User: What shape does this take?
Amino acid sequence: GAVVSQHPSRVICKSGTSVKIECRSLDFQATTMFWYRQFPKQSLMLMATSNEGSKATYEQGVEKDKFLINHASLTLSTLTVTSAHPEDSSFYICSARLQANTEAFFGQGTRLTVV
Amino acid sequence: GIQVEQSPPDLILQEGANSTLRCNFSDSVNNLQWFHQNPWGQLINLFYIPSGTKQNGRLSATTVATERYSLLYISSSQTTDSGVYFCAVGQNSGNTPLVFGKGTRLSVIA
Assistant: This one.
């Protein structure tokens, strides 16, 4: 299946700093990628839809100024958590498909801890 | 939006036992996937099954789209099957996001 790679897998940062997470489609081009967040022992919740060459679409309740998404190329989307706080500590995971109406693949996820 | 309900929420099995996990959804879908989330958090694709039946080794899945449910069967369970199993659905045509159920947490004990 398609490979979606996410980096870093784990990051610890100080409160008030920013962290960038990368999501790459390794063997296909993805005009659309999705970012999810998962708190401990909970399900995955969609944060935003990342569109190559245009602005991301954020779900209700997700602060677009705090979670900056850039989809500058057909194989890379980045999520930057700005001015991180302990409550932003979570598991962030991205997803992409080869084409519409097909199987979705997920990156390995990034475990963010803000201290 | 669409609701996805998974049952049971928790399941403990003796190694070698069989189990059935259920996923109910509240509206028509054109995409349904089953995942296994391992202890490191990675989502492993098990089945892409918007309708019909598929089998892969000890696992099989059936989706009855007209009745809005899907079943995941695990036979001869092994300790490595432990983890959380998620059902996720997608509506509408095109490249749309998946909506996840809350998962079934499976523990297989030796």
In short: The two ends of chain B are 40 Å apart (CA to CA). The first strand of chain B starts at residue 4 and ends at 7.
